[in-house]
Amino acid sequence: MANKAKLEALLTLINTSARDAIALYEQYGDVPAIDQAELHPLDNAVDQVALKSAVRILEGACAQICTTLAPPAHTAVNLVQVYDHACVRVVARERVSDILLKYPKGLHVNELAKKINIEPKKLARIMRLLATRGCYNEVDTDVFANNRLSLILLDENPVKFMILLHVDLITKGGSVFYETLKDPKIAYSYEPTVAPVMYSIDKNGTEGTIFDWMARHDGQREAYHTSMRGLNSIMGSLAVLAHFPFEKYSTVVDVGGGIGAFSLPLAKTHKNVKITIHDLPEALVQTRDLWAKECPEALAEDRVEFEDLNFFEQVPVKGKDIYYLRNIIHDWPDHESTIILSNIRKALGPNSRVLIHDYVLRQLSRKQAAIEHSELGVASAPEPLLANFGVGNMRSYQQDMTMLLVHNAKERTLQDFLVLTTVAGLKLEKVWDLAESCVMEYSAA
Ligand SMILES: C[S@@+](CC[C@H](N)C(=O)[O-])C[C@H]1O[C@@H](n2cnc3c(N)ncnc32)[C@H](O)[C@@H]1O
């Protein structure tokens, strides 16, 4: 394709994908506005696969056309001069969205500054940067109000817990990342105990893995598990409830299920299934409390059980229909992942299925992407978008770095998963493409 034709094709992609997104919003009501003060009904929909698919093309095409047309020095500095996370940390830690709830017409930054004890002129600059990103409205000079985006930072929203995890902890790993790659003691190690985040806490790896560290810090552990509920809307993972036929099965084992970020909605939507949540004993304390509060009927009807399990040392409860692992395998390097999957393999009955639900890194080779599309039904990027959807799939690559920073682990390509699962004795049956994440369905080989 000639250069000008590529730009024209990108413009067409922007136009069609934006129109697809608009049509989806219109199915639920009016289209959203950048400054609207409430959430849109589609924001909390369980199945956002169609919207995420449209936005993936829209974000990829917008970024690609900007990078093509802007001077490269402009784009290069855009990559690094990004303080959004530092500003979000301030407003999230100081509960600015919760404070602004009482002031729908806006609050002057001087008043806000008094309430949170931050120098007002500095605070105004932080708020203006965020408002420029579309998070908070500047309704009059130096007067700020909530909007649809800033409402995500309310204390009640579990997404805020994931945001705090990033800005408080994971960025510390980012700040020593280069040093960990050059420190001769650990540079070539994939030990989770010396992952950059753990290195930022203690260079000698004496704190153990992040899970060992959290076991000694109740508040951190509780916030971490709550943040997993945020993943439901961040990744749109609950779409699995609408796409996978859980109604055909009667037992589900949520391996490393945490507080049941997935299983709680499963118990509410699919009353036919009996659920076993397996996790470390310290995680399950919070789980039992939460279920008693949020889904007592599942406890009363004996539809859920909580069983301690260390998935490196023990085999899960045997012979169940579905073994579901959401965001588990990406927490571990290959050696540890193979142990987890081999232990699950030992639990399988002849008709059992294993569902691995994670990001799947897309290929930059168009030839490989075409094979995955034709053989496994994974969506392929329209030309001239980069074959992996470019920036439209950026979060999977950022999340790959998150896994490296936190656990010395990784997100994987389909090829990477096939290598791991073949060693563990699993056979790939189907890939359920949920746009941002995928569910890979396996049987016993
Ligand atoms: C990223 S979270 C995912 C939680 C849940 N699957 C979800 O998607 O919400 C990882 C989970 O693995 C659990 N975990 C870590 N080490 C474990 C182990 N050795 N045995 C069992 N569970 C473990 C953690 O407690 C945590 O709940």
UniProtKB/TrEMBL annotation:
Keywords: Methyltransferase, S-adenosyl-L-methionine, Transferase. Signal peptide: none annotated. GO terms for biological process: methylation. It holds the Pfam family Methyltransf_2. InterPro entries: COMT-like (IPR016461), COMT_C (IPR001077), SAM-dependent_MTases_sf (IPR029063), WH-like_DNA-bd_sf (IPR036388), WH_DNA-bd_sf (IPR036390). Coiled coil: none annotated. GO terms for molecular function: O-methyltransferase activity. PANTHER family: O-METHYLTRANSFERASE CICE (PTHR43712:SF2), PUTATIVE (AFU_ORTHOLOGUE AFUA_4G14580)-RELATED (PTHR43712). This is O-methyltransferase-domain-containing protein. It comes from Suillus plorans. The lineage of its organism: Eukaryota, Fungi, Dikarya, Basidiomycota, Agaricomycotina.
